Amino acid sequence: MKKKLMTPGPTPLPPQVVEVLGQQVLHHRTREYADVFASLNSGLKYVFATHYPVVTLTASGTGGMEAAVVNCFRPGDRVLLVSAGVFGDRFYDICRSMGFDVTKLEVPWGKGIGAGEVMERLTPDTRGVIVTHNETSTAARSDIESIGKALKGTGALFIVDAVSSLGGMEVRPEEWGIDIVVTSSQKALMCPPGLTFLSISQRAMEAAQGNTSRRHYWDLCKAVDFLNKQPPQHPFTPAVNIVMASLAAVTLIQEEGLENVWLRHKRMGKMAREGLRAMGLEPFADERYVSDTLTAVKVPEGIDAQEIIRRMEEDFGIIIAGGNRSLKGKIIRIAHMGYISEGDVLDTLKALEGTLAGLGLPVDEGKAYTAARTIMDIRG
Ligand code: PMP
With a threshold of 0.90, does the pTM exceed it? Predict the structure, then answer.
């Protein structure tokens, strides 16, 4: 049966990406590969909306998170870490294992954070502030624009986990004062897992250059040195075929236009929320912080979340996700990131109406579709 991945990563692959994945591997020190990598580098700058160098490392997003902090900070450095869910906690664990002096600013799950609360906790000796842009476990975003702008002129480096937002939601490293933005290939960037991408400011480069803490594979100075070679290279063997696939994916984003891509995600987010509300369901995230790339919704009392997920897949071929940790059984998560259209959101809403009706909930089949169609027709 045909399956539709409405999951928050990995996400579906466009046919242009699948086609590239069927190609023969290239040797990574050849001219042919260098051309691919050079084109990817300029495409990544476009997608990151930055002039900063964007390095490509072979790892999932977690590797990129570790690379960011191990280069910027030393054991004992004071770091302010914002956690609004599972992935904020993961970044906290990484920082703890590196021996940083981490202050954890806990945000209630389902909410995000802005500059005010961060600045209140900032001390003169804080070397870095780390925020998850889009907390995939709760579908809530933080206001990284206001935080970055407030941090400009302080001594703190600003590091953002944009793993589930970049390529679907607006991120502007320079204007927003973000020293390192980390993302990975398998979410809004429409590729298989295997690569992590980091944009690096001059300030972050200087911090890395002056940092003697131990690292080798994650050394961003080495990665940038190789990126600056003519032609650009990697220090180690990259996941060549995913690099080739990433070029196909960023080319698609360039063709659609980055701002159009952001608008599409915003529209899909609104369609999902309005559709779910029309079904009588309540989105989990606070409306002020909602994500554009995925929607989490509370599971009605007495209904088994796992059963919804199972029926969605078995009856409709649509794969959605459940909640993690304390949200297990309490929410379901529908992603609309990357190679997903408004039509896919409509299909998912229709399937969910059918599933809930089948489970005995009094849903008015068709209402969610109509509510979402109305949003879709407004466009913009
Ligand atoms: N941060 C966020 C916000 C994520 O959604 C994820 C992946 N779900 C990660 C970090 C970790 O990335 P990976 O699984 O690619 O290591």
Answer: yes
